[in-house]
């Protein structure tokens, strides 16, 4: 009976544990044997397939061990940090916003009904690209004004041409003394009046055309078309087909993605270190290992009364479309005071579990090493090196090459091992 129970253990591990415990209980006959049976069941549970490595120790979550072969294959190298005399660095929070000097916020020039919207947020447009087509009574009136002014100009030009011909004929007749001088002077006056009327008609046509152009009127069908005045990217679109909008209602916003503003609130203590033309360095959450630069364009003349900070605006020139408006940034401002600081290569700085970390090596003397995750606070970055404000000492051996291999192994060690 017991042998048959044990034979079913391999097929059904969970049921086998209870049978095995019961069999041990029947064979033993006292409390000590029952305890040993329970221990055997617990051991079997721990050895079940798929249950090994279900939990990590705190040491495993903060360090990992490499053999000499792994270090060689991963091209892992470490070195002690350098100490350099650099300017003091203060970290503040900033925000990227659209560059208003290169942004067009387009609105309806008159009350109208939206017929069609040609763009969506994210679309790239060129100068003159149609954005919104609308129908408006003012657009229809502007179209009619242009048509009337055109007809009036045609009529006045014909009259001016006739008056000019009559004056030339009067000149010839007067030379022959074939007409009285009064008739000659009347011909001159008629010609001048006709020419003035033609000029007046031309001015009226220009006014009508200018009005139609400002409204964006298509003179072929009288519709009102809103066009992009700049090349850029559509950031917002409030226009909805079928909606009736009033004059001044926001419809579409276009911005040039190659330039942004960086808004920073500089603490009062270092306000004297920031001036127009100085540089700002910053990073953003989507690209934590990259450092970007901005040039200070303007410094407010007054402090913010609530935060006691100085509003500063910087211009960010973007070569690749990675930065976007409304991103928050970590901004580093160099202070005037200079002090010695620990610096490491940029390649040593990694992001792990939402923190900025480096890996500190502890060699075992046989070619292998244990690598410890160390959370650090970094300062500014310059010439390929990053200053470390806290978390490291000059005696630590920091991984300067192959840090990604250590990071991957540490992440792998934290995963539960599911062996089926």
Tag the structure with descriptive keywords.
alpha+beta; 22 strands; 4-stranded antiparallel beta sheet; disordered N terminus
Can you characterise this structure?
It is a single chain. The chain is an alpha+beta fold. 32% of the residues lie in helices and 36% in strands. Strands 3-12-15-14-13-16 form a six-stranded antiparallel barrel. Strand 17 and strand 18 form a beta hairpin. Helix 2 runs antiparallel to helix 3 (31-47) and helix 6 runs antiparallel to helix 7. The two termini are 29 Å apart. Residues 1-58 have low confidence and may be disordered.
Quick take:
With 420 residues, the chain is of the alpha+beta class.
Enumerate how many helices there are, as a single number. Answer: 8
The class by helix and strand makeup works out as: alpha+beta
Strand content: 35-45%
Poorly predicted sequence stretches spanning 5 or more consecutive residues: 1-58
Strands in their spatial order, largest beta sheet? 3-12-15-14-13-16
CA-based gyration radius? 41 Å
| Inertia-based shape | elongated
Helix content: 25-40%
Give a short account of the largest sheet.
6 strands, antiparallel, barrel
Distance, first to last CA: 29 Å
Mean pLDDT: 81
The ordered H/E elements are HHHHEHEEEEEEHHEEEEEEEEEEEEEEEH
Secondary structure: elements and pairs:
Blueprint: H1 2-7, H2 13-28, H3 31-47, H4 58-62, E1 63-66, H5 68-73, E2 77-79, E3 82-98, E4 103-107, E5 112-117, E6 124-125, E7 130-135, H6 137-175, H7 181-215, E8 224-227, E9 232-237, E10 244-245, E11 250-255, E12 259-267, E13 279-284, E14 287-299, E15 309-317, E16 328-345, E17 350-352, E18 355-363, E19 369-375, E20 377-382, E21 385-390, E22 398-401, H8 403-414
Antiparallel strand pairs: 1-19, 2-22, 3-12, 3-16, 4-11, 5-7, 5-10, 6-9, 7-8, 9-11, 12-15, 13-14, 13-16, 14-15, 16-21, 17-18, 18-19, 20-21
